[in-house]
Every structure is written in structure tokens, then in C-alpha cells.
Write a structure and sequence with these properties.
The complex is a heterodimer.
Chain A (H helix, E strand, L loop, with lengths): L12 H4 L27 E3 L2 E5 L4 E6 L2 E3 L2 E4 L5 E5 L2 E8 H21 L14 H17 L6 E8 L5 E7 L4 E3 L2 E3 L3 H4 L1 H7 L3 H6 L2 H18 L6 E8 L2 E9 L20
Antiparallel strand pairs in A: 1-4, 1-7, 2-3, 2-11, 3-12, 4-5, 6-7, 7-8, 8-9, 9-10, 12-13
Chain B lengths: L19 H12 L3 E5 L3 E7 L13 E5 L2 E7 L1 H22 L5 H15 L10 E9 L2 E7 L5 E3 L2 E4 L3 H10 L1 H4 L4 H14 L12 E7 L2 E7 L4 H6 L19
Antiparallel strand pairs in B: 1-2, 1-8, 2-9, 3-4, 4-5, 5-6, 6-7, 9-10
Helix pairs in contact in B: 4-6
Classes of the chains: A alpha+beta, B alpha+beta.
Chain lengths: 273, 254
């Protein structure tokens, strides 16, 4: 017996050798610690979000898939979150970070409803606009990247600005922001954006676009994304935001698919030759 | 020997249910020179009477622009108003930075209200000795709020606080119905008339002792002083002479 009570009852170093503390964290005697890294890459992810501005509002869509790597893990994940009657946020990237942001937006919504009670539910003047929400989310994203702990998402924020004009802008994990009449995140930036731009080449064209055409273009893009993006699925959510409010459908199926092109392409699907 | 044992701090009630420190703070507001505020459907106006400590000194500032869309007028301890106005400027800027939106007047008013109230409930603190009128325009239109040292805040159509402000309030009550539909110029005239009514016999409004602050829909809050208000001071009291009982001292200012 030695005279160090902390060592009593433990395996004796002179018999068993010193305890190997290699796997322990630093505060338990482990080796010098590395920074936490498990929050710094995405795990469960959502793919593209696409959106387009039209004359009086915005159309936004994203599919309902959350992938675990290349595994289609969850098929009922809603990636479009309405904030109020003037704004919808679409989330691409890490799903747990999306859930964190969703909670943040819920508390912001509660705060907004407490701080100035809108007696008239039809009165949207004092509501937080999509532009206000975009500024806020961009600050959140930039703050987190500056902490070296980014929220691994690409966001599209769409809806109406304070003058009730259509608004569409993006914010990503670096806090980068920009806006355009059509936007797409992830794979959609390569596959859908050219198709969206064909329909709406500039701001002027988006002011002339009607709602039906806008919805049609977005649905077509979702189809192309399903054809070519291996992390996508055939069920998606689509939302239209205009002065009447948010019209969100979360269980849309792709229609009129045509896979005729597929067997013409080498490397697409299983090749028999 | 001791006259009042219940006014040593702001956390002790008197047996009559009063908190003397808060009441004394409200007296400080009544010692300050008068300020008046009015809103119409389109504009919000502040008017203030400035005092100078002596003939050779400058005048104490009474209207402080906070953000591009609103400003405050103060009656009472100017140093306390400075603390509150700095806080309001910070909060306004924070709203613009994080949300890119001008802060709501109801929001900023309730924030200083909360701050002032905690001062009346914590040992070792004292209430602010200043009353404020907060006027300007936000997404919900023009607004006027009154703030008191107790932490009480109220939205007003027209309001006057400070020394002899009862006379100003009497004018405002008498003309209450006209304010809502008033134009910018009419509203300024009403504010100046109310201010004038509260003056003692030997005093009059001059370009040196009068401050004006005006905010409107699609119009930034702007403060007017000195030569900028000479025109209003000349014309404000002419047309009013026709009013039923405009009061006695109606000579036009130089």
C-alpha cells in the first residue's frame, strides 16, 4: 500500500504498467486535444433547392430526401420552412443544422409576435419581410463560420420585401449572400439554373412571368434534377409566396417522367455492353 | 425629527403604498423646460423650449435625433437623457444591422421602459430623472410615445411634459380633433402654439430658444433650429388669432 489515497483500488503501475490514457479526452489525462471536428462536416444532407421570382411572388421547391452519404436515408424530410405569411426558407446541406436553424426561426417568430402584436391579421405592413429574414440568417451564418463552427447549409430565402415586391436571395455556410431572379443551390446550381435562366434571363423577364408558368418551370427543373442528381428523389415540396400568403405543398410527385434518354448515355445506370 | 423615512431608496414602499424616489424623479421632469409632441396621419412633430443657464451661455439641447426615422425630446435631467439616447441609438443600429430594418417605435419605447423600470426595483439604483417624448415613423406609420421615469410608457396623439406643460396640454386637448387630418405645416403650427401657450408672461419663442423635430412618411426625422424656424415662428401665430379663444398673449413674435 502506498500513501497516495487516489491510487488506492486502482491497478498498480509497478505491476501492470502506467495506464494508457491515449483514448481519453485531455481533461482526463489524454494527449493534447485536437479541436472538435464532428460538427465541421455535414452528415445527413439535403440536396438542391431551387427558386424563381415571378411578377407578384416567388416559387420555391426542394425534394423530401435526406441522404446519409449516398444512402437515401430519410424520405419524408420537409426542407421548405414557412416563416410567416411573407417568407419561406429553403434548406440545402446538413439536416441537423437545418433543424437548429428551424428552432432559431421559431423563437424569432415568437419574439416577433410578442413584441408588436398585430391586431389585424390582414395587416402585413409590420410583419418581418423576407429581406429582413435574409439579413438575419446571413448574419447567423457568418457568425458561425467566424467561430470556425459553420452551419453547413445553403439557404434560399424567398418571399416579399417590405414593399411587398418579390424577394429572393441566398446565404451559405460562409455567410456569402447574393440575389438573382432565379437561384439554385447545390447540384441545382449546375443542372437547374440554366433551365431557370432560359425562362427568366433577367429581372425584367421575371416581372413579366406569371405564376402558372413559374410553377411549371420549377416542376420541370425538379424532374431534370431527379433524372441526373443521384442524391434526389421523386417526391418534393413546392411553395408559392405572394400577397395572398404562403401556399405550401409537401407531398408532390414528379409526373410524366420519360427515361427514354437514359439508355443512350454511356455511364448512366447499368451498362450491359 | 425625521419627516419621511420612506424616501431613502426606490425599493421601499411607504405605508400609503407610495414609492417616494419615483415620485421625486417625476418632479425632476416637471422642473425641465416644456416639450410638446403631436402626430397626424402622416407626420410626427416635436417642439421644445430650450433654456440657457445664463445670458452668455448656450442653450441646453432638448431634441435628439436617434435614427433616420425618429427622435426624442426630453424634459428633466439632460445627463440621464444622454444615457437613454445612447442606448436607443445602439438599439436602433442593432436592428438595422441584424435585420436591415428600422426599429419599431413601440419596440424601442418598451425597451427603455423596461430599463427604467428595473431601476425602480433594485436596491442601490435610482430612477431616471427624465421624461421623454419619442416621435417618428415606422412601418406602422407615425407614432408618438411618452416615457416617464417610473418606466410607464404610453402611446399618445398629442402630449406635453415639463414645466408649465399643463397650459400646453390644455391647448392640445382643445384642438385634439384637428391633429389627425393636419398637414405637415399645420401640425408644426399647432406644436408651436401649444408651446407658446405654456410660456410665462415675460417670455416668448425666439429662433434661439425653440427647437423643432419633424418626421413623416417617406421623410427622415429632421431637427430644425435657429434661422430654419424663423419662418414658422413668424407665421404660426397669425392665423390662430381667429380661433374661438386663442388666448390673450397673441402678439406676433419678432
Amino acid at each position: 500500500m502506498n500513501h497516495n489515497p487516489q491510487a488506492w483500488g486502482r491497478p498498480r503501475d509497478d505491476v501492470y504498467g502506467a495506464y494508457n490514457s491515449q483514448y481519453l479526452p485531455q481533461h482526463h489525462g489524454g494527449p493534447s486535444a485536437h479541436p472538435t471536428t464532428h460538427t465541421q462536416s455535414p452528415i445527413v444532407t439535403g440536396t438542391s433547392v431551387i427558386a424563381i421570382k415571378y411578377s407578384t411572388g416567388v416559387v420555391i421547391a426542394a425534394d423530401n430526401l435526406a441522404s446519409y452519404g449516398s444512402l437515401a436515408r430519410f424520405t419524408d424530410v420537409k426542407r421548405l420552412k414557412p416563416f410567416n405569411r411573407k417568407a419561406v426558407v429553403g434548406f440545402g446541406g446538413d439536416v441537423s443544422d437545418m433543424q437548429y436553424l428551424d428552432r432559431l426561426l421559431s423563437s424569432l417568430d415568437v419574439q416577433e409576435n410578442y413584441s408588436h402584436n398585430n391586431d389585424d391579421p390582414e395587416d402585413t405592413k409590420a410583419l418581418m419581410s423576407a429581406k429582413n429574414l435574409h439579413t438575419y440568417l446571413a448574419k447567423v451564418m457568418y457568425k458561425r463560420r467566424s467561430d470556425f463552427n459553420p452551419l453547413w447549409n445553403s439557404l434560399l430565402i424567398c418571399g416579399l420585401d417590405e414593399k411587398n415586391k418579390p424577394f429572393l436571395a441566398t446565404a451559405d455556410l460562409l455567410g456569402t449572400t447574393y440575389s438573382a431572379p432565379t437561384l439554385a443551390t447545390g447540384f441545382g446550381a449546375h443542372l437547374a439554373q440554366p433551365l431557370l435562366r432560359k425562362a427568366v434571363p433577367d429581372e425584367e423577364a421575371s416581372q413579366k412571368l406569371d405564376k402558372e408558368t413559374a410553377v411549371e418551370v420549377v416542376r420541370e427543373c425538379m424532374k431534370v434534377l431527379f433524372y441526373r442528381d443521384a442524391r434526389s428523389m421523386n417526391e418534393y415540396s413546392i411553395a408559392v409566396v405572394d400577397e395572398k400568403g404562403v401556399e405550401l405543398k409537401e407531398k408532390e410527385k414528379l409526373e410524366n417522367q420519360s427515361w427514354a434518354f437514359a439508355d443512350q448515355i454511356r455511364g448512366y445506370g447499368t451498362q450491359t455492353v | 425629527m425625521f419627516r419621511n423615512n420612506y424616501d431613502n431608496d426606490s425599493v421601499t414602499f411607504s405605508p400609503q403604498g407610495r414609492i417616494f424616489q419615483v415620485e421625486y424623479a417625476q418632479e425632476a421632469v416637471k422642473q425641465g423646460s416644456v416639450v410638446v409632441g403631436i402626430v397626424s396621419k402622416t407626420h410626427a412633430v416635436l417642439a421644445a423650449l430650450k433654456r440657457n443657464a445664463e445670458e452668455l451661455s448656450s442653450y441646453q439641447k432638448k431634441i435628439i435625433p436617434i435614427d433616420t426615422h425618429f427622435g426624442i425630446a426630453l424634459a428633466g435631467l439632460a445627463s440621464d437623457a444622454r444615457v437613454l439616447s445612447n442606448f436607443m441609438k445602439q438599439q436602433s443600429l442593432a436592428s438595422r444591422l441584424t435585420y436591415d430594418r428600422p426599429i419599431f417605435l413601440s419596440e424601442i419605447t418598451s425597451r427603455i421602459g423596461d430599463r427604467a423600470q428595473t431601476n425602480t426595483q433594485q436596491y442601490g439604483k435610482r430612477p431616471y430623472g427624465v421624461g421623454l417624448l419619442i416621435a417618428g415613423v415606422d412601418a406602422k406609420g407615425p407614432h408618438l410615445f411618452e416615457f416617464q421615469p417610473s418606466g410607464v410608457t404610453q402611446e399618445m396623439i398629442a402630449c406635453g411634459i415639463g414645466a408649465r406643460s399643463q397650459m400646453a396640454r390644455t391647448y392640445l386637448e382643445r384642438n385634439l380633433d384637428e391633429f389627425e387630418g393636419s398637414s405637415r405645416e399645420e401640425l408644426i403650427k399647432h406644436a408651436l402654439c401649444a408651446l407658446k401657450d405654456s410660456l410665462s408672461q415675460d417670455k416668448e419663442l425666439t429662433i434661439d430658444n425653440t427647437s423643432l423635430g419633424v418626421g413623416g412618411i417617406d421623410e427622415n426625422f429632421k431637427m430644425y433650429e435657429g434661422q430654419d424656424i424663423a419662418g414658422w415662428l413668424e407665421t404660426a401665430f397669425e392665423s390662430k388669432a381667429e380661433g374661438e379663444e386663442g388666448g390673450e398673449g397673441m402678439e406676433v413674435d419678432s
